[in-house]
Amino acid sequence: LCRGGLAERLCRLQNRERSAISFWRHQCLSDDKIPSDKSSVLIVRILEIVEECTIQVAICQQLDQSPATLSPEDAVINAEEPILKVLFTRETAAHLKSRPQDVIHIYPPWQKLLLQNADVPVIMNTYFSQKVLCSEHSEAREKTYGLTKMLIRKNIISLAQTFRLDDVDDKLHQESSDNQVPCAPQTHNNGDSKRHPSALSAVNDSLLEMVESQGAVGWREVQVQVIIQRVYCLPAREGYRSHTQGNKPLCAAPVTNSDPPNVRLCLLVQDAYGMFSEVQLQSLSSTDDIEQYCRRWEGKSCCLAGMKILQRTTRGRALGLFSLIDSLWPPVVPVKVPGQSQDSEMMTTNLPPPSFCYILTVQSGEIHVEVDEEEQISNLYQPPAVHGLKEILWTDGCNKRCSFWAQVLYQRLQTKHSVPTDQREMLLFVTDSTLQNVVHGIPKVVAVSVTASCVLSMEIMEALSAGSRLVFFKDALWGNGRIICVERTVLLLQKPLLCSAAGADLSELTGPVRLDELDSTTQASSVCALRGTVVGVNESTAFSWPTCNRCGNGKLEVCPQDRELLYCNQCSEVVTTPVLKMQLEVFLSCPSRSQGTVKVKVWHEITLFVLLTRLLFLQTYEVQSVLGKEVGLLNCYIHSITSHPNCVVLEEIVLL
């Protein structure tokens, strides 16, 4: 808030008001008596309670004296006593827990408002109110009624009606008999919803109106209809586990353990006014379920109920979430504007992007999400816009979401020993036809960084381990020359049924994959092709080890029965003909890096290793026999590039 501005002054005033109310209530409870000054106390008896726009309107009869001093004959309703409308805020109503026939003492500074063309005065500023229990019978009635649910009339009044806008389609004002909702907390399950059809009868299309009217504690009596824009998983910190059966609503139960995979299913939803919310649902038992949820739910309409606000976040606090929201803004169809007529000519898409978003979560045991999977895809749904990698690399800006279809050539886990293995980043080197057909100016292979917060399904992990696969990257983050898979990024083996190609070349690769050759512009943590001449071998760092010729186990032991033989624990057999494997460091002279040293780490069963070992075996391990030999093209991963001394350290790799 701006220092000294109206908003800051109002905030301070509200804080002082809340403190004064809390102090007054605490004083009444601690003194166990009603304040002595009764000259300006307004005493009323509640006849009827109605709720409008989150304000509780009590139709009351004014009393001249407290019921404790009234005779039983005077306690009956007297038609001659004045009738008042008393307004209680949500907080005051929750504190009083009033019912018809309750007597309320309202202390100053209450105010009386006289309306034109209205005979009943309105009492406002009723923060300092106290319910009076006049007898033991009343106390017993209070205890009994406190365990039951009271139905109150609730009038839903639309903004169009409030501002007297002529709109036949949005007349949401309904008779009170059709909108009786429980004012006490209650838990619904499938059976309860059938027994109490009125409990979830009201359906709204505004997330903001639901938040303002229902508050942070939960939406128990109404539903809000939204469109599912994205389905993804987030690492679950405190989640809910639940079970899903067909089109039935999801029922959640708290998570009692953190057994992997501990991920939570989430929905990014949008209402008819364009507002977004993230709904955090249950924890999934398997991350492989995410693909089917994406196919079944994205673009469909759903009703939310039993939600509670987990957090109200802003753009500065959740850059990742708002980068995804920005990729879906502006809406593809005109959206409604609060406070305006909803005629088609009044709808507009010229709206600023959202600046805040509510994170919603489910309440245990509540009916909270019901997706109509049979319904057609909504016009408000924006499928992922698929682009070629070349187009993405040419895109300006930072922290922009992008979706692409690429072939994974090589994967590498970032080795940071201080970071646990399950929290390390993984590099996926990918390419597509748009990069392979480029001659100059853009790399043929791009590194995609997959952070630990990006949830990968077991199906994806197994597919990457098995070999080169085409993978669909949905809503990855592009910025500062890097493509990063972060929270809310989804990797799929199949392209979504609905996606927008936007004229991009998405044809599959037909020929062999080419890498960029090593030159002065090559950077560390990338892959390249290398050719050169062998100028040296580092004999001090070379080592070899025997492996099992059957299973490849490199941890052989000495056979207990015969110390001259090796034994494999995996095969449980003696290894008579072990396969010798080695690691070498070879120095090359490369035309593209003539001023520096190029050091290549070569491993067993790779091109350069096979060539060198053959020559070494033929020359009985004479290093001079391999000097001057030309090698290439080799596929290499670049570990580091230093300028002092001028040295490039590479490792020969095998592409998937």
From TrEMBL:
<dbReference type="Pfam" id="PF14950">
    <property type="entry name" value="DUF4502"/>
</dbReference>
<feature type="region of interest" description="Disordered">
    <location>
        <begin position="174"/>
        <end position="198"/>
    </location>
</feature>
<dbReference type="GO" id="GO:0000724">
    <property type="term" value="P:double-strand break repair via homologous recombination"/>
</dbReference>
<dbReference type="GO" id="GO:0005654">
    <property type="term" value="C:nucleoplasm"/>
</dbReference>
<protein>
    <submittedName>
        <fullName>SPIDR protein</fullName>
    </submittedName>
</protein>
<dbReference type="GO" id="GO:0070202">
    <property type="term" value="P:regulation of establishment of protein localization to chromosome"/>
</dbReference>
<feature type="domain" description="DUF4503">
    <location>
        <begin position="270"/>
        <end position="655"/>
    </location>
</feature>
<dbReference type="InterPro" id="IPR028032">
    <property type="entry name" value="DUF4503"/>
</dbReference>
<dbReference type="Pfam" id="PF14951">
    <property type="entry name" value="DUF4503"/>
</dbReference>
<dbReference type="InterPro" id="IPR053054">
    <property type="entry name" value="DNA_repair-scaffolding"/>
</dbReference>
<feature type="domain" description="DUF4502">
    <location>
        <begin position="1"/>
        <end position="113"/>
    </location>
</feature>
<dbReference type="GO" id="GO:0000228">
    <property type="term" value="C:nuclear chromosome"/>
</dbReference>
<dbReference type="InterPro" id="IPR028026">
    <property type="entry name" value="DUF4502"/>
</dbReference>
